[in-house]
Structures
1.
Amino acid sequence: MAKKTFPAFVLPMMAKIAEEPFDSPDWIFKVKLDGYRGIAVFDAAGKPHLWSRNGLPLEKKFPAVAKALSNLNLRSTVLDGEVVAVDENGIPRLQLLQRFQKQPTAPTLYYVFDVLWCDGEDITGKPIVERRRVLEQIIKSIRQPPRGPAPAGPARHSPAD
């Protein structure tokens, strides 16, 4: 099988509507955040590009998120997440995000919930549970021992059940 060429943009995986509620150990459920879907693509040199789900650039819209991504030491990796604006209690508020372009007063964060490519390898064919394990390893590598976890900044790991 030929190795895939690393992409400049990847369409995000989209949720599918279920016929009825269910619970299964084979599925995870992510927290619903009111924000903009953001695909972070780190090229071979480690330069990140943040895209909307429609392939529009988001770096200029969300400079704090773009700066946080530029501090990550990732190469040939694609992260999938959500850009949110939070209120004074840290709760994502879509209204704050919608107003952000005209009145950038709320902090913006990037919650990462999936990894689609890692170190130049397409892992979209792997189950989400395996991709979440890869994401956990990425998150651990970002932390700076022995001082503990990286300080809370604009890039976050999105929890899942």
2.
Amino acid sequence: MVDILPLCPPSASEPQAPLRLALYEPDIPQNAGTLMRLCACLGLPLDLIEPAGFDASDRNLRRAGLDYLHALRLERHLSFRHFEQWRRAHGHRLVLATTRADVAHHHFRFSPGDILLLGRESAGVPDHVHEAADARLAIPLRPGLRSLNVAVAGGILVAEAMRQLDLFPPMATTGGLDVPSP
């Protein structure tokens, strides 16, 4: 059973997650699916801010997330306005990934309860979303190169935030990557 919530906020009795990832009106279902899998594997809730640029029905989200959705806590928000009301009511800091930032992601100090927001693949986020963000971060790139794929950028930001907050799950005895001893 997939834990895809309806377009409404979670109950007040739910414990606050130490870190969340949010997708602002994603355009490409494959990228959304990759980020769903990332969140499922790392135990992070994912907030989907609609409308999406693809059919975001439960059936299509299940297809995009493949066989990992059973482990995902996915919360859907009808619009950015609804997401913002929910976020502010729960005291989450909004950290926006953007090519228009002056702060490098690895120089930023993440805090428990942060929501990492990724914009649309085609257009990023509009100015009112930039203005609502509590922090704006960029991943430093070589000169002359524009941006990373949104799923790759999300993975880099999530990894740095989880490293700083010591949120990685313990290593399993099987699976994952095996690194030979020197």
3.
Amino acid sequence: MHLPYQPIIVTIPEMRGYFIVTLLLLLTLGCAAQNHTAEGMRFFGQARYDAALASFRSALQSNPNNANALYNIAATYHQSARASLQLGQTEAALQQYEQAAQYYLRSLAQNANHADAYRGLASLYMDRQNPGAAFELLGNWNQANPIAAEPKLELARLHQEWAQIAMIQGDTENAQRSRDIAAQTLQHVLTTEPSNYRALRALGFLREQSGDIQGAVIEYSRSLQANPQQQDLAERIAILTGIPR
């Protein structure tokens, strides 16, 4: 990477849920663990991260090798670090980022294809201004699973995010290069899974960002046909075509 990375938050409400990294909390196995996890989710939603960590650690006790439980702790440390940064608590944030990274890695040690853990750890590397580590992480995952769609979808997301950063920094050449790589990666997914709605949606987003509105509508429509439950995407198509729903 040639650009000095600066952490930014890119908000695109119409496309929320694919490119914007979210910290998804996952259920764990076992009745007691599920109760603790549900409690942790509630605390997490209230931004009570210490309480959420206590609940998720209780869920982990019943199965110390549960990848989802480890991921939940990682995601909570991660979000707590972001909150600490916003409050100017840099030292606390650094410690929380370190804890998050360790738990993401522990989750991956238990499940080498834990997509949420890969997504979270790549996002953490971007937060920490280390895009090279994020690309290496997802690149290695993709190489280990050359047929799987999930690593390619995450790589494409990362390239698209990098393109947005490049545009903000005024480097249109690097931005277009990253978009091209993202599009090629998504097309690779579609060669084996022509109806992968996530790849179609992401490709439509790239088309839209490049100014190809007609191409974006085509890909969005294909994605919506593959998965009609995407109400936000239907609304986006209506906005782009001027056809009310």
